[in-house]
Amino acid sequence: SMNFAFDRSKMEIRDGAGDRFTVWGNNSAAIIAGGKRIASSSGGLYLNQYSDTYIYSENTGYYALYNFKGKKLTKTYQNAFDEVGQNIYSHWINDKEYEYIRCDADGTTKVLFRVKPILNGGRPGLLATDGAGVYALPTDEHTITCFDRFGTTLGTIKQDGEITMEPTFENGCVRVMDKLYLPTGEE
To answer: Measured in whole angstroms, how far is the alpha carbon of residue 15 from the centre of its chain?
Structure first.
């Protein structure tokens, strides 16, 4: 329950997960968590699905990560900043490279990988995951790197030919093109 109201004709709920949701309207946004308004902005606020953080559009095209206490956790990145896994985010370094970072709600940040966008039309989407904290990331045209939610590399999968499809997980294995691999890299 909440002790404040929104004019429903002017506001809409966009994102929601559990007791958290984002309200948009009238050129403003607010994030509600635990029945309290934790952030308000005239710019964009994007509630993260898997992490106790939100992405704030500081200016058009410039984004930073914040925790629910309003503390800025990262520097500001241009063009894109996306949650791609639990406490794992991607952002542009330049017009040809992405960086994947792990950032906890306390601000502990670790660079995981720097990659050139290969699939998805040049912009990465959600990382392939087994749902239990193991991820698969195309790191070049012939390699998939598997890592855990802390950024520890579990193994690499090498293909002779070019990888043209996103990896997926099936029963704990990683499907790359038409073959299955363990996250440690063995076929």
So the answer is: 15
In DSSP terms, 28 is beta-bridged to 25
Question: Which pLDDT tens digit goes with each residue over 32-62?
Answer: 877 788 777 777 788 788 888 889 888 888 9
Eight-class DSSP state of 12: E
Distance, CA of 67 to chain centre: 14
Other C-beta atoms within 10 Å of 76: how many? 15
Rounded CA gap, 150 and 86, in Å? 10
Instruction: Find the Cα–Cα–Cα–Cα dihedral 44, 49, 54, 59, rounded to 10°.
Output: -30
Structure tokens at 49: 């699905």
pTM of the prediction?
0.82
In 60-127, DSSP assigns E strands to 62-67, 77-78, 81-85, 88-94, 97-103, 109-115
Confidence tier at 2 by pLDDT (50, 70, 90): very low
Separation between Cα atoms, residue 18 and residue 26, nearest integer Å: 25
pLDDT averaged over every residue in the chain:
85
